[in-house]
Inverse folding.
């Protein structure tokens, strides 16, 4: 299966998206990002107050005879997207009020579980020139997994770092694609009417993918997904039936120069080696009978040999004991409890000791991998 998929990686496949999807193996894709036709149902041309024509979405691929026809397309591509996604993979689909609710209902019917809807707020939206409705200043993205209990990639800590230490919200203020980023042909005409900004795809890929993942875009268009994937050290598979779009998307991607791969690594707390409190005892970083103190020093608890804490004849874990003292539903015992630093007249959080222990464990694992690789090399020589 891996070799078969290698034939598709980092390529734009020409053809009907549903038929091409059928050629991909089951459970092989890490993420699907889809920007399907919006079925905008525009009733004639749009004009500005100065009577100039608005370059709106009037392309043939966005026209459907009936809602049923559109729903049949959605059902077909979503069915195949579900099949090719890994159990840990996720789907992202973007749309406007014209189609996103119908697509959302269909993807749920196909077995997807919605994780979030994300509002892409445009800080430079196109005005409503007719003055008959509100200015439509956003689009909606649906993020979904293959099932309610399926595990999936979510780079929580990375997003928090990107958002100045705050949890990333589900409303993203990002400008529409314009200026030098907008692809144009030799006559200066926009290559694609619905080209998405790279900043939007960057946020999506940073949210739910890792370097080396395979990102599939069944409606590749101007190639934004592939361009961002290449910059971020991901692989891509694009599908489109229009030779004109494929030509310009391929040229765009070919012109991208990638940087140092070491800068692409994602490091988050959820990726770190798990260190139980008892491991600090086993390795002598803390000894039985050590007194731990809370941040303000009002309460102390003694460490028991089994890794629990004792206080006033009560016994509990570092987390439960901290929560009980504060009368709180939960507590991060690692940051709550402190101990005297050896040889120093100050206290440190036991989380500092956990970091020391994690470094030792990771170092020993690296040595183990090195020794294993030596054995493999010897076997290959033999």
């Amino acid at each position: 299966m891996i070799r078969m998929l290698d034939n598709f990686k980092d390529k734009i496949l020409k053809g009907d998206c549903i038929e091409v999807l059928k050629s991909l193996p089951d459970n092989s894709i890490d993420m699907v990002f889809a920007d399907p036709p919006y079925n905008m149902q525009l009733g004639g041309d749009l004009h500005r107050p100065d009577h100039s024509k608005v370059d709106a979405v009037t392309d043939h691929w966005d026209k459907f005879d009936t809602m049923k026809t559109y729903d049949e397309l959605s059902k077909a591509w979503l069915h195949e997207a579900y099949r090719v996604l890994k159990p840990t993979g996720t789907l992202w689909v973007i749309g406007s009020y014209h189609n996103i609710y119908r697509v959302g209902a269909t993807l749920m019917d196909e077995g997807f579980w919605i994780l979030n809807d994300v509002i892409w707020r445009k800080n430079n939206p196109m005005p409503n020139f007719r003055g008959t409705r509100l200015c439509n200043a956003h689009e909606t993205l649906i993020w979904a997994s293959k099932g309610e209990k399926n595990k999936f990639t979510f780079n929580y800590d990375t997003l928090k770092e990107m958002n100045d230490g705050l949890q990333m919200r589900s409303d993203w203020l990002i400008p529409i694609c314009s200026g030098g980023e907008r692809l144009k042909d030799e006559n200066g005409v926009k290559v694609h009417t619905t080209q998405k900004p790279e900043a939007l795809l960057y946020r999506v890929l940073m949210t739910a993918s890792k370097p080396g993942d395979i990102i599939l875009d069944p409606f590749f268009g101007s190639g934004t997904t592939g361009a961002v994937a290449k910059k971020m050290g991901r692989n891509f598979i694009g599908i489109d039936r229009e030779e004109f779009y494929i030509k310009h998307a391929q040229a765009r991607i070919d012109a991208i120069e990638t940087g140092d791969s070491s800068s692409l690594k994602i490091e988050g707390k959820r990726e770190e080696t798990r260190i139980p409190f008892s491991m600090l005892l086993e390795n002598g970083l803390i000894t039985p009978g050590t007194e731990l103190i809370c941040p303000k020093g009002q309460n102390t608890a003694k460490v028991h040999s089994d890794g629990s804490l004792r206080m006033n004849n009560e016994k509990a874990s570092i987390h439960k004991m901290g929560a009980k003292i504060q009368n709180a539903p939960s507590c991060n015992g690692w940051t709550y409890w402190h101990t005297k630093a050896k040889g120093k007249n100050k206290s440190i959080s036991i989380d500092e000791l956990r970091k020391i222990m994690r470094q030792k464990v990771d170092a020993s694992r690296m040595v183990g991998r090195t020794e294993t690789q030596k054995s493999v090399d010897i076997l290959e020589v033999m």
